[in-house]
Write a structure and sequence with these properties.
- This protein is 37% helix and 22% strand.
- It is an alpha/beta fold.
- The chain has a six-stranded mixed β-sheet, with helices on both faces.
- β2 (43-50) and β3 form a beta hairpin.
- α6 (141-150) crosses α7 (162-172).
């Protein structure tokens, strides 16, 4: 097996944080979270960058396969404002055939000394297919209620089923406002399991 066939998820993830995301992680208004659950934990995206938008990075190492990618993309297109797939060279052709045109693609190749080199093949663009209600599912029920209460909705409206609360929130707030609220609430969550990844 050649070195380029030996990449592991952890190799690419560490290099992604250290090389590609180092600058954005230094910004005060940016949150970087590993293994962010989407659509109430139907799937997870490997790394999420949350600032002015929610940008997910999905990693496909040489040890992975693409059997789940189509299903993952179906959820990502509903919940992420941007998406970049970071993959070993062996997967690039398959990814290009599966990923929508707005999805970014980065090749992650392992050099002879073990270091990961990134090559941007396509930059991520704004996702035109996003479902604001599905993206709002990143907020917990009590957080949605707090936002709707601040917006002046009566108490009886706040007792509605969760799905209706998300729909109401998307009527009351813009996508940018919802994104800012998601970032703010995630910072506040003392029990957030990936807290250390925020630094």
């Amino acid at each position: 097996m050649s070195t380029r066939d030996a990449t592991k998820d952890t190799d690419i993830r560490i290099a992604l944080h250290a090389k590609r995301l180092r600058r954005v992680k230094a910004q005060a208004d940016t949150l970087v979270i590993d293994e962010l659950g989407l659509a109430h934990a139907k799937t997870r995206v490997d790394v999420a960058v949350i600032n002015g938008c929610i940008h997910g990075y999905e990693i496909k190492s040489a040890k992975d396969n693409l059997s789940r990618l189509a299903t993952q993309i179906d959820i990502y297109r509903q919940t992420l404002q941007k998406l970049t797939i970071v993959a070993a060279p062996k997967h690039i052709v398959g990814i290009m055939g599966l990923a929508p045109e707005w999805c970014g693609v980065i090749a992650a190749d392992q050099g002879p000394r073990g270091g990961i080199k990134f090559q941007v093949l396509r930059n991520a663009a704004a996702n035109p297919e996003i479902d604001p209600v599905m993206m709002a599912h990143l907020l917990w029920r009590n957080e949605v209620i707090e936002l709707l209460d601040q917006a002046g909705y009566p108490a009886k409206e706040l007792r509605r089923p969760r799905k209706q609360l998300y729909e109401t929130l998307c009527e009351a707030m813009t996508l940018r406002e919802i994104t800012a609220s998601i970032r703010a609430f995630m910072i506040q969550r003392r029990t957030w399991r990936d807290r250390r990844a925020h630094a």
